[in-house]
Write a structure and sequence with these properties.
Length: about 300
């Protein structure tokens, strides 16, 4: 599978070498693989972030990003960078179960429980990083990623995990929207909210795992929250939020990679550049919303 995907990506890179706007990222495999990863993350993250925004799960997203860290450390310590995704997947299952359980306690206890999950899992990750093979020097890379070191193996893993996240949300999409707007009514209508909660937390974990190697466990939060928030500023329906959120994620990745390859006196972090570009697009959407408000006030 990895070899077939690598051949497909290389053929795509050669076909895009002369396309305006893609010439730089398609000029070499070490740039094009990260670009493909960012496109896949933008697609999956855009869809996930819409649900996160509608269901107000930003704290869950933050907790997921930090809680999966021990699995990333364990995978890297035991098998190297190519085993980060399998290690993170094991931790992800535990995180999904824990967050789903505390999220159903209600009465205000869900936020406290989520904070406990975040703190405990992330603390374990820090301890492991300092003790497992003396990984203290690699702590920064694990937290902030290595976008330009994406391998064919990691590319295949990212595509697979993001595809699973999208599949889970597509199968539960109507229920996700129903629960977001009326959780009590959805239960009365027969919706199994436990399965819906497991699905959204599983999708959050999947995108976090997929982005952990590329943009790091801390910066991947931008793909889980910002695109959906940006789309909410401009759109009046869920149907239009999805393409706008995907556009913000994909365009932010492309812009960030373009900036990272610009000649400069000192290297520019591609991960930070991508994260800042996604946030920058959110600010653009905020400005557009402000201009709309001014126009309505003035014209109306």
């Amino acid at each position: 599978m990895t070899a077939s995907l690598a051949d497909l990506v290389e053929s795509l890179r050669q076909a895009l070498e002369t396309v305006p706007g893609l010439q730089d990222v398609a000029s070499a495999p070490y740039l094009f693989r990260p670009f493909v990863v960012l496109v896949v993350l933008g697609l999956a993250g855009g869809v996930v972030s819409v649900v996160v925004n509608l269901r107000r799960l930003e704290f869950n997203a933050e907790a997921t990003v930090h809680s999966i860290f021990p699995g990333i450390v364990a995978g890297a310590a035991l098998g190297g960078i190519d085993h980060i995704v399998p290690g993170a997947s094991v931790a992800g299952v535990l995180v999904v179960l824990a967050l789903t359980w505390v999220g159903r306690t209600g009465a205000g206890a869900d936020e406290a429980g989520t904070a406990v999950v975040l703190t405990s899992f992330f603390s374990v990750g820090i301890v492991l990083s300092l003790r497992a093979s003396d990984m203290s020097g690699q702590l920064e890379a694990l937290m902030f990623g290595r976008l330009l070191e994406v391998t064919d193996e990691h590319l295949a893993q990212t595509c697979l995990v993001c595809a699973l996240a999208l599949l889970v949300l597509v199968l539960t999409w109507r229920h996700q929207v129903f629960v977001a707007f009326d959780r009590v009514g959805s239960r009365a209508a027969g919706t199994r909210t436990l399965g819906v909660d497991l699905a959204v937390n599983g999708a959050l974990a999947a995108v976090t795992i997929a982005g952990s190697m590329a943009v790091g466990t801390l910066l991947v939060i931008g793909y889980l929250v910002v695109p959906g928030a940006a789309a909410r500023l401009l759109c009046r329906s869920v149907r239009t939020m999805v393409p706008v959120a995907i556009g913000v994620g994909v365009l932010g990745g492309w812009l960030g990679l373009q900036i990272a390859t610009v000649d400069s006196p000192r290297p520019i972090s591609p991960q930070a550049s991508v994260a800042l570009c996604v946030v920058g697009l959110f600010l653009v959407c905020l400005a557009v919303r402000g201009l709309r408000w001014v126009r309505v006030r003035v014209v109306g």
